[in-house]
Queue: 3 jobs
Job 1
Amino acid sequence: MVHNDKFMFPYEGAWSDGREKLLCLDTGSWRVNRPVLDKEKCNYCSLCALYCPPQCLKDMGDHYAPDLDYCKGCGICARECPRGAISMMPEGEFADDSAKR
């Protein structure tokens, strides 16, 4: 969308540099599945972070960890991981977590 020859929004395309969250909406308690990372399989390629729609994967220096406050549980990170380092697990398996994640 263009207004006076300037972009109206800070992000006008599908590409993000990954340093800012594009969709900062707290997930709440409705997520059904969550990503679980196997650090042994991860080669730190960053494809998971690149394809994550809400950009909620945090760079931890040697792997990417999902910010579960913003993760929607879509599973795109797991599908895009070339090494199968991310798997989607049902939230019910984490029912004992004290946090809403």
Job 2
Amino acid sequence: MDPQRRIESLIEPPLEDMGYELVRVRLSGSERRTLQIMAERVDGGDMRVEDCASISRALSAIFDVEDPIRGAYTLEVSSPGIDRPLTRIKDFDRFAGHLAKIEMQSLIKGRKRYNGKILGVEDDTVRLATKNGDVELPVDEIVTATLVITDELIAASQDSAVH
């Protein structure tokens, strides 16, 4: 099992027990490695510094016992932010109607990079409305996907923070 998958399997259950959901695990760097854990509150509330600190303490204790990464590394815990990565199928449904940038593993209709409005997900395929027409992108071929900051996204994030 690759290190990122092992880390995901170690931390998802305790995060859920604490009321958080794992958004992304990213291990980067070669000499001084960085382990980035991105999480959000299950209740939809804003992530605060205290949330990140609490997660960091809990995960550090797990990593001290399990030791999933060889050598020294820095642990960073953060929230997804407004221009968040879209890493789960449900993210594409949740943010339907908003603009996204998506990079594919292989060519789809002659392209690897797409920008457009998320229309939703059907049968493990993200539907995206682009300036050149609608396109269907297989979820398992998506390398990266992020929301694009727009006035509509900012307004939606402020509305969800209030409610």
Job 3
Amino acid sequence: MTKRLLLVEDHEDLRRTIGCFLSEHFTVLSAKNGLEAMSVLSKGIIPDVIVTDSTMPEMDGATLLHHLRSSGWWADIPVFVLGANEDASEAQHFERLGAHGYFAKPFSPVQLKEKILDLIP
């Protein structure tokens, strides 16, 4: 059975590119912000992993992660964050919120895929 990945990214071209790259290993669902991601989840669609941008309109990655970790339904879903800042403090912030990994843009899609596949074989 194919694993499901929810990709939350507000830039359409990047969302499409990452989604296409990861579709070899996952059924990729997408949302353009955290609010849309919560809508997907509230319909009972539970992904095996979430990849989210850190900065988005409507609901950013930190707020999405907070909602996920404080919920009973989605608290255990692994989350990887795509951030705009190479500063270690932002990566540490997301790790404290419960992220499984942080990738500063520009990032290596191959490394992202490998980290996800290490966690979700």
